């Protein structure tokens, strides 16, 4: 059993859930769908690493961690209901046994990134999900290429317009990261990365760094 599997099963069980091995098997199956390139277990692993590095500042780290595990479990490229369907997946497996299930669902919904979260736990979930924006330039580019690969339905021109809208909206915020800790860690580099990307047109790739 992999370290990630053991970590999830232990957390699921300690939170009140049952059938942890079956839950993880289904979760891993979904995160390894062939249409996925960015929204994979690799993304979740990085979210967990960032949670571990900010753990002491997070009010309810176990609840935040479960939300991070489940926030992209359902991902259909271009769909507008991925978060809601991820919530449904979580509720189906939790079956009312996890006391913090309502809060976990609220945090998953917050990863739509359409409204500003108000509770600290939600802010950490959202910030950690967006840590990619504040990564090293090479990593930022590689993740951009993975995100692009998930939208074969769009040609380069259409995807460029779509991505520009998304990234411009992040850049227009007073703060990309809501928590002071994540703001200090990633804000400056994230803004540099977004400005760099918006100054370029697709197709581009990691060799353009």
Automatic annotation (TrEMBL):
It comes from the Bacteria. This is Metal-dependent HD superfamily phosphohydrolase.
């Amino acid at each position: 059993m992999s370290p990630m599997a053991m970590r999830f099963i232990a957390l699921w069980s300690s939170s009140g859930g049952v059938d942890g091995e079956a839950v993880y098997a289904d979760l891993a199956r979904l995160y390894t769908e062939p249409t996925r390139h960015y929204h994979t277990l690799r993304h979740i692993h990085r979210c967990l690493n960032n949670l571990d590095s900010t753990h002491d500042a997070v009010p309810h780290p176990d609840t935040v961690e479960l939300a991070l595990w489940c926030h992209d479990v359902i991902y259909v490229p271009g769909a507008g209901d991925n978060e809601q369907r991820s919530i449904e997946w979580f509720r189906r497996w939790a079956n009312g046994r996890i006391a913090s299930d309502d809060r976990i669902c609220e945090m998953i919904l917050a990863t739509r990134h359409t409204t500003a979260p108000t509770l600290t736990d939600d802010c950490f979930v959202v910030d950690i999900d967006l840590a990619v924006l504040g990564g090293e330039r090479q990593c930022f580019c590689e993740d951009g290429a993975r995100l692009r690969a998930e939208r074969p339905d769009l040609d380069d021109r259409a995807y460029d317009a779509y991505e520009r809208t998304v990234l411009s909206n992040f850049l227009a915020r007073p703060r990309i990261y809501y928590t002071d800790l994540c703001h200090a860690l990633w804000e400056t580099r994230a803004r540099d990365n977004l400005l760099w990307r918006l100054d370029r047109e697709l197709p581009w790739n990691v060799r353009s760094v």
